[in-house]
Structure formats: structure tokens, C-alpha cells
Amino acid sequence: MKMPRDAVTQTLMVVAISCAAAGASLLGGCSEAPAAKSFIQSLYLGPDKAKQVRTDDYKTQVAQRIETVNAEVITPGRPQAMLRSVVIVSFVVDRQGKILRSSVFRTNGDDVAEKVAITTLRRSAPLPEPPASVLNAAGQVELMEGWLFNTDGRFQLQSLAAPQQDGETE
């Protein structure tokens, strides 16, 4: 079966670019430049999926920042089986890591948990600067994060939390 000329050209370009990136990685101490990594991810995953991978990486950095700043109210280990509350917060970050706006997106009506979620997010500002590849045309990125509250009022962030416990106690 004969491949169309455009498909052959595109395949050869992908192979050449991948080889060039691999060669640059070897010469550069085995580290890929972020732009090359993003480009290669887009070749294998498609541009939309590659952007989601980068957004997920940034969301993890944000969650780590929130946990670091608010360590005294973080639950160590696995979240309990029956959580007191789950609060989903939507927030917008600009290119400098400034939180432009935040709001509770979903909750079970626990006003105290909602206030803790918003307060701990705001206390963590400024957040890490987002990579340009995740910013929208306005130079912002919108994220959502879940605060998983145990009965003692401490929480874990959904992006970093281990699986919940199976029973009442562990």
C-alpha cells in the first residue's frame, strides 16, 4: 500500500525532529528543553492533549505551593473514608502567578470548609508563574482544585491526595 506524499513528508519530519531533540538531549546533559518537550508531546498526544498535560503539571505545582504554605492544616496520609466536606474552588491566575479571582464552584454547604478553602488559596499567593503554553489569549489560566476535608477540619488537595481509606479507621 502506497502512502500519500503529504503523509510521508509529515512522518519524515516527525522522525527528524524527534531525532534532533534526542540528539540535543544527549548533548545537553540528558535534559530536554521545555519547548522541545512540549512540541514532542504535541506530536504524540495531539496539541489539545499535550496542553492538558502541561496544565496538569502546573496544577500540581500550584497544589504543592498551597500545601507548603498551609502545612499546619494539611491531613497527613490518606483521607478518611467518609469525608466531612469536599469543596471545589475555581480560580484564575495571571502570568505572574497572581490570583485574579476565586470562587466556590461546588460544595456540600459546609460554610466553614468553604471559607478555609478560599482562605488557604489566597494565603498561598503569589502562585508559581504558569508556563506560557497554558495561558489563554488574555494571559491567564483557569484552574479548579478540590479541598478534601476530614472531620477534624484538616484537608488534602485532590491533585495530591492519596486514595481514601477503605473503612472507618486505618
How is the largest sheet built, in terms of strand order? 2-1-3-4
Count the strands? 4
Computed over alpha carbons, the radius of gyration is 21 Å
Give start-end ranges of low-pLDDT stretches: 11-16, 18-34
Query: Average pLDDT, to the nearest integer?
Result: 80
Question: Quick summary of this structure?
Answer:
The protein has about 170 residues and is an alpha+beta fold. The chain contains four helices and four strands.
Question: Can you walk me through this structure?
Answer:
- With 170 residues, the protein is α+β, with helices and mostly antiparallel strands.
- Helix content is 42%, strand content 18%.
- The chain is built from 4 helices and 4 strands; from the N terminus they run αααββαββ.
- It has helices at 5-27, 34-45, 47-69, 111-123; strands spanning 85-94, 99-106, 140-149, 155-157.
- A hairpin with a 5-residue loop joins strand 3 (140-149) and strand 4.
- Helix 1 (5-27) packs antiparallel against helix 2 (34-45) and helix 2 (34-45) crosses helix 3 (47-69).
- The chain is globular and about 45 Å long.
